[in-house]
Amino acid sequence: MNVQIEVTTRCNFDCFYCAGRDMEQKDMTMEHYLKIMDSHVHRYGIPAQVSLQGEGEPTLNHDFFNMAAHVRRIGSEPTTITNGSYKYPEHFAQSFKKIGISLDTLDPAEASRVGRHNLARVLEFIESVSSFLEVTIFTVAISPSFHAVAAWCQQRGLKHIVQPLQSKPDYNYRYPQHVVVHPRPSLYQCAYLQQDLMRYYAIDSGEFPCCFIKDARHYVSIADLKQQLANKQIPASCSGCKELK
Q: What is the DSSP string of 183-231?
């Protein structure tokens, strides 16, 4: 079972589609992180991979690289997704073998409209870090620009993943003009719940079966989600999720 930990909700970008900009802006302490990891290992065993990321830019947490080093010490593989604004890409070589980098467009004007600043620095970061790490570029499909990003990645031999805008209400309130109605699921199944694919630990230590639950007011537990789906009910915290089938 893989793990994802939200090490910060702070960010130096303000992408219009990011739910994190409406959250309390704070970092997870190293002490808090260690408690989460100790608890997880005790209950589930050592995870194959730990992704240090959430609704903020992970490198803004001053303990980020210490956390990554700890992940490697326990025998797991650290990874992350960064916005590429970090000034010292060589620091990633200490603990990481692979990382993800967010890049929605190659057009500086469009990047600014999205809320992604200093595109030139991001592109420079990608060129630098991809010389010694395996890099995957993540693009949110907000415009046809993702085709240009795909071609750019192909030229450089970089993996590329295009992500649709999330249709869940706890995301799409930020971009109502882009909302796509998600069909009501007919099988009441979710791979994350059926197979226990991962555990997501939010900045407040909340434990979730995936990283898609941002409004936890209706969330009770993983067992409760499974029971509701077994009863042919759509959990309120999962409403509209593209992972429901």
A: PPPSS--BHHHHHT-EEEE-TT--EESSS----GGG---HHHHHHHHHT
Structure pTM? 0.93
Q: How many Å apart are CA 163 and CA 243, to the nearest integer?
A: 13
* Residues shown for the chain: 245
Query: Which amino acid is present at 36?
Result: I
Whole-angstrom distance, CA of residue 244 vs CA of residue 90? 39
Per-residue tokens: 239: 């409403």
* Greatest CA separation for the chain: 51
CA angle 196, 197, 198 (to 5 degrees): 95
Within the chain, where are the H helices?
A: 30-44, 64-73, 108-114, 119-129, 146-156, 169-172, 191-195, 222-230
220-244: per-residue pLDDT in tens? 999 999 999 999 999 999 988 888 8
Calculate helix-pair angle for 64-73, 30-44, nearest 10 degrees: 30
The two tokens of residue 138 are 């993540």
Question: How far is Cα 169 from Cα 80, in angstroms, rounded to an integer?
Answer: 25
Q: Per residue in 31-77, pLDDT tens?
A: 999 999 999 999 999 999 999 999 999 999 999 999 999 999 999 99
**Sign of the torsion angle spanned by Cα atoms 74, 82, 149, 133:** negative
Taking the C-alpha atoms of residue 117 and residue 104, their distance in angstroms, rounded to an integer, is 11
Q: Are 201 and 36 in contact (CB under 8 A)?
A: yes
